[in-house]
Amino acid sequence: MHLCSATHDTREGGPGLDPRIVRFLKSQDHCRVATIDSFGFPHCVPVGFWFSGSLVYIPTNSMSVKARNLRREDKCCVIVDAYEKGKGRGVMLQGSGKLATGKQFLHARSLVERSTGWKLKRWRVGPPGKERVDTIIVFKPAKTVAIGLQTDTA
């Protein structure tokens, strides 16, 4: 069995995501997202996500710490990993996150709900009194690092 341990640069002009990474991301629905707080420290939290094409969609509340951090600094990191029988595999995605609001939010929410079956109106994700999903982070990876993903020639 061969393992993928690779770095991919997906910025403008770079290659797209490796098919092994795409398959892995589509097989998962929980990740951790790290944003940068106002003091320059990482803020990392577990979240649900949906991957489509080349974008990661993360439902949240506009008053959550991660949303407030992204309004100030759009650079962030998404970590998706899985451990089974003592073996780990995962992907780190570095890039930028934008908050979908207004019509963009309604479109993104509809897309995520249709594709996942999630009922985002029922989710409680934000601080007390502001728990409802009212924005979706649309994350675009610029760089990926994968480890433990099987190659097609395994």
Structure description:
The chain has 154 residues and is of the alpha+beta class. The protein is built from three helices and eight strands, in the order βαββββαββαβ. A hairpin with a 2-residue loop joins β4 (50-52) and β5 (55-60). The relative contact order is 0.27. The model has no long low-confidence stretch (mean pLDDT 85).
Distance between the termini: 4 Å
Order of helices and strands: EHEEEEHEEHE
CATH class: Mainly Beta
User: Which regions contain 5 or more consecutive residues with pLDDT less than 50?
Assistant: none
Q: Kindly state the number of beta strands.
A: 8
Task: Kindly state the percentage of residues in helix.
Answer: 10-25%
Task: Summarize the entry for a quick read.
By secondary structure, the chain is of the alpha+beta class. It has a single domain (3-150), classed as Pnp Oxidase, Chain A (Roll), CATH 2.30.110.
Task: Describe the secondary structure blueprint for this structure.
Layout (H helix, E strand, L loop, with lengths): L2 E7 L9 H8 L3 E7 L5 E7 L1 E3 L2 E6 L4 H8 L2 E10 L2 E14 L1 H15 L18 E16 L4
Antiparallel strand pairs: 1-8, 2-3, 2-6, 4-5, 5-8, 6-7, 7-8
